[in-house]
Amino acid sequence: MTAVIAPPTWNTIADAASGLAPLLDSAGGVSNVIVKLDITNIAHRDTEPAYRLVRYAASSSGPVWYDARTGHRLYNVVGWQMAQ
Q1: What pTM value is reported for the model?
Q2: For residue 11, what are the contacts with CB-CB under 8 A and spacing of at least 6?
């Protein structure tokens, strides 16, 4: 019998502030978050991965996502979940 692995359920960007608020560290952010990028976005290059490990930062203007490897801000995020 073959085990079936269900695809991950992604949280919406609108849920980021409320979902990650309890996890904020002293700097106002959360590490070890995985995001799904919109690969149809014009800014997304074919050579880039569709999923990234990021650091979330709380902001009054909405969620801010920083690539954990490069530190660059990511704009085309369409979903998130905590890395386990």
Answers
A1: 0.84
A2: 19, 79, 80, 81
Copy the structure tokens of residue 5: 């692995």
Residues whose CB is less than 8 angstroms from the CB of residue 20 and which lie 6 or more positions away in sequence, other chains included: 30, 33, 56, 58, 63
- The answer to whether position 78 is within a domain reads yes
Query: Which uninterrupted H or E stretch holds 65?
Result: strand 64-67
Give the range of the structural domain holding residue 67, as residue numbers without chain letter.
13-82
| Domain-embedded: residue 1 | no
7-63 pLDDT, tens digit each = 888 999 999 999 999 999 999 999 999 999 988 887 777 777 889 999 999 988 889
